[in-house]
Amino acid sequence: MVAELSKLRDQIDEVDRQMVALLARRLSLVEDVGHVKSQHGLPIYAPDREAAMLASRREEAQSQGVPPDLIEDILRRTMRESYSSENDSGFKCLKPELRPIVVVGGHGQLGGLFCRLFELSGYQVRKLGRDEWDRADELLVDAGMVVVTVPINITEQVIAKLTDLPADCILADLTSVKSGPLQAMLEVHKGPVIGLHPMFGPDIPSLAKQVIVYCDGRNPEEYQWLLEQFQIWGASLNRISAIEHDQGMTLIQALRHFTSFVYGVHLAEEDPRLDQLLSLSSPIYRLELAMVGRLFAQDAQLYADIIMSAPQNLAMIKRFHQRFGEAISMLESQDKAAFMQAFDQVENWFGDYAQHFLTESQGLLRQANDSTHRK
Fold first, then answer.
1. The model's pTM
2. In terms of DSSP bridges, do strands 193-198 and 211-218 run parallel, antiparallel, or are they unpaired?
3. Where in the chain is the domain with CATH 3.40.50.720?
4. Which class is domain 1-88?
5. CB half-sphere exposure, 63, CA atoms < 13 A
6. What is the per-residue pLDDT for 360?
7. Listed GO cellular component terms (predicted)?
8. How far is Cα 62 from Cα 69, in angstroms, rounded to an integer?
9. What angle do CA 223, 166, 189 make, to 5 degrees?
10. N or C, where is the chain less crowded by C-beta within 10 Å?
11. Helix axes 152-159, 179-188, angle to 10 degrees
């Protein structure tokens, strides 16, 4: 039995080595694709091509007795690596005549990411940090675009300093709050203005499939090339008004981060053994715990600024607190009928998205379970 098992494992090892060689070949071809896309200004992410390719491979897998979900999982992970590799080829520059881009806060993580992407696209980039304002006039005098990416609590103060930009200079910000900064930019600068909110952190390997929200300010025809440049980087664009953006972020960011914060505080006060919680965890709880832990591995100032950035955030959190109290009352009275009625109401609100999210979450949970190491 041992000899038979050893022989089979040797054969599996050989297949694995062949898979590694094939993946190396695929990544090499992706590098060539990146050069072609760079020359012709093609986006690194082509959703139609990706969908068609996955559909074909699923059919081929099915015909050979291979689970289609398995080949899709492998290909999606491979494509994620491929998108990252395509960054190495650089990107086509859509505005080669543009004067220097000045990134205010360019020494920070997010600012540094955009500096790198602009440089990969062939633009001249300057960084203006908090210790370099004595050189601000020199750095800004001939700017073709100025991008402000500083902490939320000082964004409008920094924007107020940008009073002497060239008339045709594009002024933009990369802030998670839009109404205040956008209005501040419109007041300080009479040229093109756009508000931007990258819906990702600075640690992403690629902008493929990432979302950049933008709010029009003034002279949108002057910064259309910038939006197209983002798409070449692989980003998806979402146009929205500043007011609608901030209303959405109250739920997407402020409330979500605050509830994670409170749950983290609760865990720390209850002080359970974290290793024991993990050993008992289902994949979904482990994933939820990871998302809470992820918050506390980052900058406290950033999350304090996001949560406390607008009065409507506090109002929303208070309404959540009220509904939390109402739900506790249901538990105290053991009112299962009220619980089920509320459950059905929320299910109806989600509509078809409920089933969609169930399917999507099952894939996430499989991945989370695969990465778990049990002793």
1. 0.86
2. antiparallel
3. 101-240
4. mainly alpha
5. 6
6. 87
7. cytoplasm
8. 10
9. 70
10. C
11. 10
